[in-house]
Structures are given as structure tokens and as C-alpha cells.
Amino acid sequence: MENLPFLRDLAVISIVAVAAVLLLARLRLPTVTGLLLAGAIVGPYGLGLLDDPTTLKGLADVGVVLLLFSIGIEVSPERLRRIARLVAGGGGVQVGLTVATCVALAAAIGETANRGIFLGFILALSSTAIVLQVLSERGEVDAPHGRFVLAVLLFQDLIFVPMGLLVPVLAHGEGLQSGTGLALAIGKAVVVVAGAIIISRAVIPGLFARVDATRSREAFLMAVIAACIGTAWLTSLTGLSLALGAFLAGLVLAGTDFANRTLSDVLPLRSVLTSLFFVSLGSLFDGRVLFEQPLAVGLLLLALLPGKAILATAAAVVMRVPVRVALVAGAELAQFGEFGFVLVGLGMAAGLVTPQESHVLLAAGALSLFLAPLVIRAAPRLAALAPLLAPLDRWMHTRPDAVLDDPSLRTGHVVVVGYGVAGRILVQALRESEIPYEIMELNAATVRDAREAGESHVSYADATSPLQLAKARVAEARAVAVLINDYPAVRRVVAALHRHAPATPVFARTRYLLDRDALRALGATEVVAEEVEAGIEMLARVMECLDVPRGAVDDHVRSARETTMSGRPLRTGRYRKVGKAGYLREIEDPVIDARD
After folding, report:
1. pLDDT band at residue 595, thresholds of 50, 70 and 90?
2. Secondary structure of 129-171 as H, E, C letters
3. Beta strand pairing status for 506-510 and 582-586?
4. Which of 24, 341, 503, 545 is the most buried (most CB within 10 A)?
5. Which residues have a Cβ under 8 Å from the Cβ of 352 and sit 6 or more positions away?
6. Separation between Cα atoms, residue 260 and residue 466, nearest integer Å
């Protein structure tokens, strides 16, 4: 009975959140804004429907931990090396310009530099969830402006952790003046980070290898939660944040074969808890602020939209990105970020901002999120201004290739699901034909052996996961070959492939011919039945042993394959010899099934 108030709160939150999301979906606004609106409705400044807001906050904190954990997984060392210049340059300049501008404005109105830096931290961050969702829907993630935006968002995700560490230092004015507080914070963080990484690398990969050997999804998910929450808790014992520990745990796993599967397994749980996080943030929204301080909210909204767009555009131009691309990218980065809400909460706890100021920040941030999808959709129209700024292109010596391509973003490749004997045969042929390929394999031992043998394009991945299908760029592939032995698994993979990339040809293998129609109905383009191919191979070898001429053998093989591929049942028949040249087949007997 003690849990009934908590269950009631969850029921209320879920009902209101679904209603708000559905309402805003009709207006083509993102899910995040619906969750924020739901929080504002059920929160203390709305209808006050929550009996136990502290429980909601606890679950929301777990959501933030899982969010940072998944970001750590996505930031693999290889990915960082590939786009390091654009991430560090573009992201660093964008954040630096924003912070410097806020410090200058703070000085102009008599505020301290520390509060200006803190405001710069908050305004510098953009919404990864909203921006990438809209760009993905428009198919622009790999466009020049999309790649620059992705690099800046990645830098923002990385820089958020040190930003959070600096909030307590900024709250004490003497920290930045003497430099002691900052040095101690950074030194402590470096020691803890190094220790956590060393210990985690020694423990986590071995633990996950043993858990994976059990072939239990439940055990694997519990191991993921243990690694994430356990590392976060141990880090918090040193006085650092839970979020930092979770990020480190994800970063450790990012360098292992288990990264993709871990991310796909934790995403559903993360989605639920981060949804509660957004609801909890929305519960802090006080609608009265819009009427009590409309000027402050309006000025912050101007800083988030046109102001931030100008600064982000300038950062892109500094990186020698063409002005046309820079204008679009700048507009797409002009909104409040999810981590901005986290920093506001940290600032309130440290006394860096007052509750009233935080309400103004939350109100302006929420409004910017409502407007963000509309701004992003209108951003390409800004390219029309590029001719007016052509002199800037010439002065900065911008170049079209300034936005780096990621060589891992393949197109026109073949995705091979399963790296057994059949998978190796196909991959060998693709390699010799110089056709690019990616291998998805769910057996960690097979992946490890393949990499030890020099195969660099194999990943430990579940082909039923939409996230991992997206990472393999199945929608841009020329074909997918499903070469796993488990028929139920083949069905799940084919169905997932058809949902994710209906236009990509899918070739599936199965044991029995009778399974062909079911796989075709699920979306397979072609189905190869092992019993048919084994029968055809046996036919050829027996006939060759009987000295049947090669031409006649080929005719028999062609006839058998055409019959089975067309869906017509196999027939029996008698053969009559024609001279000494060979054998012709006479089909006279009734139809029989090809499967026992």
C-alpha cells in the first residue's frame, strides 16, 4: 500500500504526457516539448497533481545517468579521431564565442564574470535530441551542414561534463580569482577519471565477455545496469557527479565489441527514464513568469534564437565552412539544450542562480524548444542570403571540403548478417571484388577471432536493433545478406530490415524450401533454401560421377533451380538415353513435395 501514491503519480504523469505529446504531434512539434508541457501541467506551478515529487526527481536523476552513459558509448575513440579537428575546432569556437559574449554582456550590466560564464555555459548548449531527429527525418544528417552540426553537438556533449564540474567552482567567486579552486577541481577530476578508466578497463570487458557467454539477454541487461550505476555510484563517493561516472562507464564500453549491443539494450530503459526527466524539468516551469517578467524571457529568447544563430554561423565560418552551409548550420543550432536544463538545476543547488532566475531560464528554454523544429525546417531558406555574403567566402578562403567526411559513413556497401562459413565465403568474394561491406555478428567470440585474423569491418551487433541497423547504414546499402542458422532469428532480422529499409534488397538463407514464402512475406527479396542448394550440388556431383556430359548436367541444374525459384513443386520423372551424346529428361510422374 505504501507504493500506491507513487504508482498514482506515474499513472498521472503517463496519461498527461501521452495526451500532451499527441496534441503537439498534431502541431508537428517534438516529443520533448510535449513532455515539458506535461510536467508544467502536473507540477506545483500547474495543477499540482503530484503527491511525491521527490520520487519523480529520483527517477529523473537515473534518467540523466543513463543519458550520459549512452553518450559515452557513442563517443568511440575512433569516431573522435576521425572528426577531431571539426569537433574541437567548430564546437570549441561556438562554445567559446557564446561564453565570451555572455561574459561581456554580464560586465556591461554589472554582473560578475562567474555568472556570465555560467550563463554562457547554459546558452552554448543545443538540443541534440530535437536537432538530430529533425535532420534525420529530412535525410540531412550527412549533408554538409548536417555534418558540421553533428560535430558541434558532439563537442557540446563532451564539454558538458567539465561544465558540470565547474559549476561549484563558479559559485564561489574566489575560485576563479585565485585559480586554486579550478586547479583542484580539474586535478581531482583527472585523477578520478584516470582511475575509473583503468579499473573499468580491467574489469568491465571481462565481465561482459562472461555474461555474453551465457546467451541471456536478461543477464546482459543487468550487467549493463550494474556497470553504469555502479561506476556512477563509485565516482560519486569521491565528491564528483553521478553523471560523470556514468559517462566514464560508457566511454570504457565504447572501446569494446559490446558497445553497440549495450547501447541498443539500454535505449528503451533510457527513453522511459529520460522522459520522466523532461517531465520533472517541465514541473519547474512557472507560466506566471511569462506575464511577470516578459522582458527578461523575451531577451533570453532573442539570445537563444537569432543571437545564438549568429554566433554558431560565425564559428562555422571561422572553420572555413562555406557561408551558405554556415548559415543553415547556425540556425539549426539555435535553441536551448537538454543539458542546459541540467546545468540550471546544478546552478540552483550551488546558489549560482536564484529560483526566480531559473524560472526565467526554463521559460525561455522551453519556448525555444517549441520553436526549434520550425526554425530548423526554415533554415535552408537562409541559403538565399549566401550571395550577399560572397565576399566573406573569398576573404576567409572557405572551401567546400571544409566539412570533413566520415569515412565510416558508407554507401553502396553490402551488409552481411552472420559471419559463419557462409558469411566468410561471401565476404571473401566481396573483398576480392573490391566491394565495400560491413559484417554484423552477435557472437562475441566470432567477432574477436575475426578481428584477430585482420577483419576490420566486423562489429558485435544485433541486426534486429533499429539503432544498430542505422549504424550499419542499411538504408544506404546495395544489399543485405542474412546468413544466420536460427530460423526464428532470421524471421526477426528480415522483418526488422524491411521496417528500417524497405527499399534495400534482402537475401535470406533458410534450411527448408517451405520457409521461403513466409520470409518473402516478411520482406526478403530472395530466399536461398539449404535443402535445395544441397540437392542441386548432389545432383551435379552424382551426374558427373556417372559421366553425364557437362552440358546435360548444367541443364539439369538450371531446370532444378528454375523450378524451385519459381515456386513450382519438384516432380519426379524417367530418363531415356539418346544415342551416346547424353540424357534427356521426360516428366511423367505426379507432383511430390520437396520437403519430407
Report:
1. very low
2. HHHHHHHHHHCCCCCHHHHHHHHHHHHHHHHHHHHHHHHHHHC
3. unpaired
4. 341
5. 114, 115, 118, 167, 170, 171
6. 11
What strands lie across the sheet with 414-417, from one edge to the other? 458-460, 437-441, 414-417, 479-482, 506-510, 526-529
With 0-12 CB in 10 A as exposed, 13-18 as middle and 19+ as buried, what is 391?
exposed
Specify whether the CB–CB gap between 77 and 252 falls below 8 A. Answer: no
Q: DSSP label at 443?
A: -
| Per-residue pLDDT reduced to its tens digit, 365-399 | 888 877 887 788 788 777 666 666 656 555 555 55
Question: CA 558, 562, 567: angle at the middle one, nearest 5?
Answer: 155
Residue 272, pLDDT > 90, answer: no
Cα 400 from Cα 148, distance rounded (Å): 12
Cβ neighbours of residue 128 under 8 Å, at least 6 residues apart?
A: 153, 156, 157, 337, 338
Strand partners, 482: 417, 508
**CATH 3.40.50.720: which residues of the chain?**
414-524
Confirm if 246 and 66 have CB atoms less than 8 A apart. yes
Task: Extract the C-alpha cell encoding 207.
Answer: 565481465
Pair 265, 277: CB distance under 8 Å: no
Cβ neighbour number for residue 237 with a 10 Å cutoff: 9
Torsion angle in degrees (nearest 10) through CA of 558, 433, 416, 436:
-150
Q: CATH for 4-396? A: 1.20.1530.20
Q: Domain 414-524, what fold? A: Rossmann fold (3.40.50)
pLDDT of residue 333: 92
Helix/strand/coil for 438: strand
CA atoms within 13 A of residue 541's CA, in its CB half-sphere: 6
CA–CA dist 391, 405 (Å, integer): 26
Question: Is residue 335 scored above 70 in pLDDT?
Answer: yes
Helix or strand or coil: residue 214? coil
Q: Can you state the percent helix, strand and coil of the chain, rounding each to 5? A: 70, 5, 25
Instruction: Give CATH 1.20.1530.20 domain extents, the chain.
Output: 4-396
Separation CA 79–CA 259 (nearest Å):
13
| Average pLDDT of every residue of the chain | 78
Torsion over CA of 326, 378, 306 and 89, rounded to 10 degrees?
-30
CB 249 within 8 A of CB 227: yes
- Cα 24 to Cα 18, 34, 167, 286, 367: the distances in Å are 10, 6, 34, 20, 13
Is the predicted pLDDT of residue 101 greater than 90, yes or no? yes
Tell me how long the chain is: 596
CA distances from 285 to 35, 94, 349 (A): 12, 28, 17
